[in-house]
Design brief:
Layout: H1 12-34, H2 43-109, H3 114-121, H4 124-128, H5 139-194, H6 199-221, H7 229-239, H8 258-268, H9 277-280, E1 285-287, E2 298-301, E3 307-313, E4 316-319, E5 328-331, E6 339-344
Antiparallel strand pairs: 1-6, 2-3, 2-6, 3-4, 4-5
Helix pairs in contact: 2-5, 7-8
Length: 345
């Protein structure tokens, strides 16, 4: 027969704990409801954070450009080596064939000697080490075997070099992928911050940028500094690109990053300069005084030299600033980083 026991009542201690927990939950809920919402960052605060992210993105962009340039260089070198190996292997096969034909002729006449038999069944290096057989070879056969030896050594060296460069290429591709992710991450974060602004705030930022650009343009037009020579030609070409958008890794003709614009400008003037800002800083004559700069000189900013433009006169430059902007004039004082030096190409 089933027993009918009364349910066990909770202990006084358990009731107390539950009551205390419930009271705490109510108190926390009340505090959360009454807490003031976190303040939305101001337009200027957002701009400052976005500018910093864009600067970091440009740093990563120049590293990305360097890795990309290295990748392209390695690919060309590997292709050249592989072509050399293919040609070398063909030459080696022809040399071997010539020895084989000589052996076949001797065989048909019944005069094949032990030296040729030994060559056909072993490595030429081992064979030539056996001095006792040298007198059994014709001068022509000796020369052919020496050529085979040399060609084998060349091919082994080139294959080893190709293997090393292929490993370097794989490492460079990995680095390229990492830098690309860094750039994209910085740009995505900047866009997220910009999306917190109202349409009115965005319009105000755009208007500020436009006023600054127009002021720089007036200063350039009012400058008495003249451009000449290749530098002048590079500068004139850069002027023809005003208004085209900044895109990281771009070298034109529809968009540019900072070093993409400067390298393309000088290429248009008939002067080949390196692709990245860091490499561009290593050429030509350095000018450390802003007062000594001439129109068309390369100008570098930030301690790591990750930004470059062309001097436009009167303290202004023409450059591709960052994502969200276009090729434009700008005062050197508003770049966001210190002027390091100029380079006269």
């Amino acid at each position: 027969m089933a027993s009918h026991r009364r349910p066990k009542q909770p202990s006084r201690t358990r009731v107390t704990v539950l009551t205390t927990a419930a009271a705490a939950a109510v108190a926390l809920s009340s505090q959360a409801a009454n807490a003031a919402p976190s303040e939305k960052p101001s337009k200027d605060e957002v701009k400052a954070k976005v500018d910093k992210l864009y600067e970091e993105a440009e740093q990563a962009t120049e590293k990305f450009n360097g890795a990309k340039e290295k990748q392209e260089k390695l690919q060309k070198e590997i292709s050249t080596i592989q072509d050399n190996v293919a040609r070398g292997q063909e030459e080696l096969n022809q040399l071997r064939d010539s020895i084989g034909l000589a052996a076949a002729a001797q065989y048909r006449t019944g005069t094949i000697d032990s030296s040729v038999q030994l060559f056909l069944s072993s490595n030429p290096d081992d064979y030539l080490d056996k001095a006792s057989t040298m007198d059994q070879l014709s001068a022509q056969q000796v020369e052919a075997l020496k050529k085979i030896q040399e060609k084998q050594r060349e091919l082994a060296q080139e294959r080893s070099e190709a293997s090393a460069k292929l490993k370097d290429l794989a490492s460079t591709r990995t680095e390229l992928g990492k830098k690309k992710k860094q750039v994209q991450g910085k740009l995505a974060e900047a866009q997220r911050l910009l999306n917190t602004l109202t349409a009115k705030e965005k319009a105000a930022l755009a208007a500020e940028q436009e006023r600054s650009s127009r002021a720089s343009e007036r200063d350039v037009l009012g400058s008495s500094t003249a451009a000449s020579g290749r530098a002048g030609a590079a500068y004139a070409w850069a002027q023809s690109q005003l208004g085209k958008p900044y895109v990281y890794g771009a070298t034109g003709l529809s968009s540019y990053d900072c070093s993409g614009l400067t390298s393309r400008a000088y290429a248009a003037a008939g002067v080949q300069i390196p692709r990245t800002s860091e490499a561009q800083a290593q050429i030509g004559t350095r000018i450390y005084s802003e007062s000594q700069l001439q129109v068309g000189d390369l100008v570098f900013f930030f301690n790591d030299l990750h930004h470059v433009g062309l001097y436009a006169g009167n303290g202004q430059i023409i450059h591709a600033p960052r994502t969200g902007t276009v090729v434009r004039y700008e005062s050197m004082s508003t770049i966001g980083g210190p002027f390091m030096f100029g380079v006269r190409v």
